[in-house]
Amino acid sequence: MATFGDVVVSHQATLYGHTSDVTCVDFSNDILATCSSDKTIRLWDVSDPEGSGIKERNNSPLLGHRYTVYSCCFSPPGNLLATCSMDGNVILWDPKTGSLLETFQHSSFSGIRVCRFSFNSAFLATGGEDETLVIWDVNKKDALKTFRGHDATVSACAFTPDSKYVVSGTTNGDLRLWVVTSDEEETPLVYKNEGHDLGVVGCEFSPTALPNDNTHSNKNHGYLLATCGNDDSVRLFRVVVGLVNEIVLDETLIGHEANVMCCRFSSNGILLATASGDKMVILWNVMTRSMRFKLVGHQRYVTSCAFSLCNNYVASGSNDRTILVWKIRENKPELVNFGSFKEPTQFNAPTMSPTSIYMVLDERQAPTEYYCPITHEIMKDPVIAADGFSYERKAITEWFQNGKTTSPMTNVVLAHAHLTSNFALKTLIQSHLAN
């Protein structure tokens, strides 16, 4: 437990179940959803974390994807869960029953990297390796718009709080702002080519108006956008729409020591959580643009984070296959004053038992090149494709059978579909497993 003035943060639970990297986490009112490279989505009951504890629901795991599940998100009311995958499918689930309700695909059938609901729940945005952002009408279960013009994979997207606009970020590092419901030509309202130098990994709009904002008038609307990227930084942008349309860098938050993979606002807009390859989650005070806490406990890089709707829990997912849940509460009887701190506080989750550490790290100790980029599992029959990368034979063969002609790693069209057995790598893998 760590106490810092008016706030107490403590480790609440460590959740096990995924057999590969945890890629995304998200909360509804009483459910925590987590997805993974193991192709599954797991649902956890968080209705009474301190009483009955956090337990996996009876309808978990959800099975429907064939490859890595990159992203999961709840609609604001919590009645729908969207997931997307390298297999090219976007699936809508009923989280209460676990039923598969609908499956969407981009016209290219390419892998989908990100999915996000609008604040009014009317729209779902999906971005993928085909360099497009598709807006879906949730009620009609149909594509409303397809935004083209990106020159790289769409790796991040987010709606403004009024659901009128959506921003997209790419692995090239640029940002584009689009009008969701306009009948005009589908071109970006604003284009910023230097969001992050090494690629945008995540983005999210604050649910509240800009602090100390002078742009919110009848003619201009201002939004606060947080982004994160492979340049190890978190950035806050002022997004202005009206007489002047622009995305302006407001602040760069420095604190992480590796690529930042996720950024999420609390529902009141006071805190921002960021997850990074440095194995940490940092909680930032949005008003003062300063670090509040460093949450340390994962054994490998942290891919994702999310606040509960009531803002008293933070969950983080990692490549160590675990989910950590942290409790945030007021240190009563004092009132919360998020501007009262001077230095960030760092603390660790309770030490895992030797058995738990073995469960998490045993197989992951294998070198990265032993894992298939498609299945994220240790390869049994590695083959070399035209892009020079090695894949599990069954996985890359199925990739081609599904009509895909691009590289799973680079998204560039392959010169041919011939596969060559990688006997040297197979020998190394067999030797590793034997030892």
Strand content: 35-45%
Radius of gyration: 21 Å
In what order do the strands lie side by side in the largest sheet?
1-2-30-29-28
Class by alpha and beta content: mainly beta
- Apparent shape: globular
Total count of strands: 34
Mean of all residue-level pLDDT scores: 85
Number of helical regions: 3
> What's the N-to-C terminus distance?
40 Å
The low-confidence runs, each spanning 5 or more residues with pLDDT under 50, are 332-364
Largest sheet, if any? Answer: 5 strands, antiparallel
Q: Helicity range of the residues? A: under 10%
Commentary on this structure:
With 435 residues, this protein is mainly β. The protein is built from 3 helices and 34 strands. The chain has helices spanning 354-361, 393-401, 423-434; strands at 2-4, 7-15, 22-27, 31-36, 40-45, 55-56, 62-63, 69-74, 81-85, 89-94, 99-105, 112-117, 123-128, 133-137, 142-147, 154-159, 165-170, 175-179, 190-192, 200-205, 220-229, 234-242, 246-253, 260-265, 271-276, 280-285, 290-296, 302-307, 313-318, 323-330, 345-348, 382-384, 390-392, 420-421. A 5-stranded antiparallel β-sheet has the order 1-2-30-29-28, with no helix packed on it. The longest helix has 12 residues, at 423-434. The radius of gyration is 21 Å and the shape is globular. The two termini are 40 Å apart. Mean pLDDT is 85; it is low at 332-364.
Which key terms come to mind for this protein?
single chain, 435 residues, mainly beta, 5-stranded antiparallel beta sheet, 3 helices, 7% helix, 44% strand
